[in-house]
Amino acid sequence: MSRARVVFSVVVLGVALAGCQPPGEHGAGSVSLSIQPQSYQCQEERGQARLTSAGVVKAQVPSCGGMVQPLPLQPNVVAPAARKPTMAHRWWGNVTFFGAHAVDDPDGPGHITPDPLMARITERGMRLMGMPAGLGVQEKGVTYPVPEPLSEVFDGIAVANSQFDRLDAYVRDYSDGTVSLEWRNGHRPVMSATFVQGSPYVYLSVFRGDLQIRTLEPDGERKGIFYRQGNTLGLWTDVSGNRNHFLLTGHGTTEFTGVNGSEITAASRNSHFTLTWLPAPQSGPSAAMIGDFIAHARQPVDEVEVDYRVDPDSYRVTVSHQYRYRSEPVKTLAGLQPLQWKNSKQALTDYEVRSARGVMRFAVTGSFAYELPSVGVLPGLPAGLGDYDPQRLRALVHDFMAQDPQDWNRATDTYFAGKNYGKVAELALLAREEGLEPEANRLIDWLKSELEDWFTVDPAEQTRYFVYDDRWNTVLGVHESFGTHQALNDHHFHYGYFVRAAAEICRVDPGWCTKDRWGLMVELLIRDFAAGRDDPQFPYLRYFDPALGFSWASGAANYLLGNNNESTSEAATAYGAVVLYGLVTEQPELVERGVYLHASTAAAFWEYWNDIDGYRERPAIYRNFPDAYDKLTTSIVWGAGHVFTTWFSEAHAHILGIQGLPLSPLVLHLGQYPDYLADYVALGLSESGNGKPSGLRDGHWRDIWWNIWAMTDADAALADMTETGFEYVPEEGETRAHTYQWVHAWTELGHLRSGAGQVTADYPAAVVFESGAQTTYLAYNFGNTERIVNFSDGVRLKVAPGAFGIRKVPSHGG
């Protein structure tokens, strides 16, 4: 039997007590510059002690008894990256956290995933593989089951140095789509490598010693040479069924020695090289492919800037990628992912390869752009949608409020507290729409009290405050959960709920969000997970990866398959909340940033989590899931694949339901394809006793599934909910009143019509729905004057200030 206990201990750091530094001031709020020692939590289980809520520190400690002293983790960065805000949440984030992993170290499985490549950074250099060579359909998904993952080399190759085998690795620089790493011996640089997301090239420089390429075996059945001409050498490896073809090109006169052995040395006068992975068939690359890829190999890329523009007439988002070297535009052979090439007019070559996200297609270009539609967001739903019983709805509101106010939220961590704030924000709007002004005001007052507690620092308190860490350039909430300190996980999920709640407070009390009150604290959280460019305290869009178009959840990302993201709906909630907050505080730049992040998250959900083109049985090149993958969807997207599971459960209700919570008008994209969603619901409920939410086991989210089902078949969802009654236990981020209103509303709304681009609007808080009988145009005006919302099909909707506007048009001939 294991035992666990939590202790709080004062810890001396140097000569000063942690927590004694003055807090930073942010309007009426404040942020601590260190964590109070009394906040530390320590748990002993199975003879091991683990420290949490102590910042970005080493988790393992000798014991929880006596003095518990955290060991802070330092970012592994050197200039110029050291002069920028610390970035970790990318496909290369584990290097920031861990630097080089030692060969054979079981605590360091982490790989970086510059698709179509993946690499493990080691004290000797790196192990490098072509991701498509090893990707395959496994029991739970499509992944690269790396053979002998801790070895210096097995499949693929290893990049090493002739003089040094005990090096430290650092992030030297980064951009939206690149990372440059540097290996050092002490303080002296030995070699560097620049990786580009979507590129077949790795740009290498050697400052001491000579470059070496190592393989598992010398020439034979598992390694050979297929090209040797001028300053380029081509070698193949074929280990564990994973066949790779590499070119090594020197940028100057280059001499290769030991080419037929397992350790090839390359000596070049200028010591610059490009390593190329070729998207070749098993039989090998053609002469034309070799020539085309060599032609662009000597033009380095060290920066990819990804920018966006939001069209104010349609709120469509144009995303552009620009390739540069030393700040100047350059042309390269760039790989475009499915989300990009499917929505772009970029001319493409015939070169392509199936990789982690689907078919990557290559273009000779210095830039490309693609366009995404915006689904639209709303602060909630207005009263009067659907044939519900107003008395029943009001009773459900009163049932929630009959609790002791202290019972509304007993959580002291940022996730479960945040979920409570999000659901109360939804309930407050619902109550106000139903004419329950006193109840709505009471809910808002409770939210104010809770957030203001978090937004102020008392040196004596143990929990519910925020800390700014100037080493990692991040805001930490106390207490942590799910590794928000240790690995900087999930801040966008957690803090998005806080921003959602703040947006509702400010919708009815704009003064609460002014700069001299609480607005700067709300914006501090936004800056933590989605800062604008050139913010001096936070990295740009920390959790969102501009090069790929979706978010990563982990900072440390110490995983075999790279980084990962599970709940797209919680990411969309965070970015949709940014839109709401930007609208209510009249910050257009913040609105556009949120629209970009929200639109891309929604599009990526359909592209990579659901393979909507595969569902539509489009030609093979459009299908992102391999034919042998027999699941409709996936749940966790990894840098090197995707898996049909969750971090906490194997139940289908959880695996699919995690993409639909919290369900609100910030996650309307889930309903873009109602026919697909019907099959999604059937799979999610396939383990239910009766194939309906009512047949799910306790804890399997009956209300979440009624909400999801309503977006494709509201009448069926309503019938099952009504038959079940209202004695069920809601999911932690949901209320019975909200579920009751949501399901009834969709019986009238029918299905979502916005989002796929057919109908757009010139305002971000505007959405269109369609049922068999009518089309419903719905908008909320956050402004102080009347607004006319123009829809692309010619409909105009007049909306009063601070109110919903709704127009219902007969679907046929109306």
Structural summary, described in words:
The chain has 814 residues and is an alpha+beta fold. It has three domains: 1-72, no CATH class; 81-300, Distorted Sandwich (Beta-galactosidase, Chain A, domain 5), CATH 2.70.98.30; 390-752, Glycosyltransferase, CATH 1.50.10. Helices cover 25% and strands 26% of the residues. The protein has 17 helices and 43 strands. Strands 13-14-15-16-23-20-19-18 form an eight-stranded antiparallel beta sheet. A six-stranded antiparallel beta sheet has the order 8-9-12-17-22-21. A hairpin with a 2-residue loop joins strand 25 (317-325) and strand 26 (328-329). Helix 7 (414-433) packs parallel to helix 9 (491-508). The termini are far apart. Mean pLDDT is 95; it is low at 1-22. One of its GO terms (molecular function) is glucan endo-1,3-beta-D-glucosidase activity. Residues 401-733 form the Glycosyl hydrolase family 81 C-terminal domain. Its EC number is 3.2.1.39. It catalyses: Hydrolysis of (1->3)-beta-D-glucosidic linkages in (1->3)-beta-D-glucans. Keywords: Carbohydrate metabolism, Cell wall biogenesis/degradation, Glycosidase, Hydrolase, Polysaccharide degradation.
